[in-house]
Amino acid sequence: MHDSQLHHFLILVARRTDAFDIWYLNILLFIFKRIIDLPYHWIYLGFISKYIAMRLLLRSQHLFSSLPKWATLDPHSLSGKHPHTVANFLDGKIITSPKTLPVIDPLNGETFLNISIPTSNADLEGFIQSQRAVPRYGVHNPIKNVSRYQLMGDIFFKIASEMRKPEVENFFVKLLQRVMPKSVAQATGEWVVTRRFFENFTGDNPRFFQRSFNVAGDYDGQTSSGYRWPFGNVCVITPFNFPL
Questions:
Q1: Tally of domains within the chain
Q2: Beta-carbon neighbour count of residue 203 at 10 Å?
């Protein structure tokens, strides 16, 4: 195989892998150039070719898997030519906006994501009313809404079961890599940790999570009881380096 043909082959393979693989394949090309003139170079090339094939096979699992049926984008083709609009989620409905905030692809500077932004008070009114609809005692109240904890246990079980599917894991691993510069191992590790969280909180574990406590009072018959559950409206700020 000529040097130009080898370079063309590696670039074609790199287009089906992530940014880390492109850097890695360039190093391999440099090694190829150095050993091509060595005696018995075909022996070295044989070992290296087998190593490359196994590495690419393991790191490019998406070549042999399909997208989940509920997926709204393909992370493998996500680019400036095929951008995706990130919508908001309000009361079980997907809400988009005519105004968007562009997100730049660090690999080439193109806009590959557009974040929907509310543009007027009318756009924000739905979110305001949704927050006002939350009762002060919370929607996870273990006294007034006991079935909520059984429901969450069932939901977490279904999520954990879905996360066990290879095509779902491959989808999110690649999606994580498109928005955060992580290797396959790092993105997979984040996926596994999240999946185990859902597995741990299936069944009765959601209601165990809000286990209460009692404290003796100042006179006979008096006790103080404490309950733990989200009270009223709750806001969560997530870390940017663990987007999942």
A1: 3
A2: 14
pLDDT at 194: 93
Please tell me the pTM assigned to this model.
Answer: 0.66
Determine, yes or no, domain membership for 144: no
| Residue 143, domain member (yes or no) | no
Cα separation, 161 vs 118, whole angstroms: 35
Structure tokens at 4: 């130009």
Are residues 75 and 55 both part of a single domain?
no
Q: Which residue has the tokens 């999110």?
A: 172
Question: Which residues, including other chains, have CB under 8 Å from residue 54's CB and lie 6 or more apart?
Answer: none
Query: What does the pLDDT look like over 28-81, one tens digit per residue?
Result: 666 666 666 656 555 556 666 666 665 555 555 544 457 888 888 898 888 889
Whether 71 and 128 map to the same domain: the answer is yes
Top pLDDT among 24 and 126 is at 126
How far apart are alpha carbons 244 and 234 in whole angstroms?
19
Backbone angles phi, psi at 75, to 5 degrees: -65, -20
DSSP helix/strand/coil, 35: helix
Provide φ and ψ at 197, rounded to 5°.
-60, -50
Q: Determine, yes or no, domain membership for 140.
A: no
At 140, phi and psi to the nearest 5?
-110, 30
Which of 43, 59, 75 is at the close of a domain?
59
Residues 156 and 238 in one domain: yes
Please give the residue range of the domain that contains residue 37.
Answer: 3-59
Asked if the structure places residue 129 within a domain, the reply is yes
User: Could you tell me if 96 and 123 are in contact, meaning their C-beta atoms sit under 8 angstroms apart?
Assistant: no
Query: In the structure encoding, which two tokens stand for residue 125, read together?
Result: 């009114």
For 58-87, letters b (16+ CB in 10 Å) and e give: ebbbbeeeebeeeeebebbebeeeebbeeb
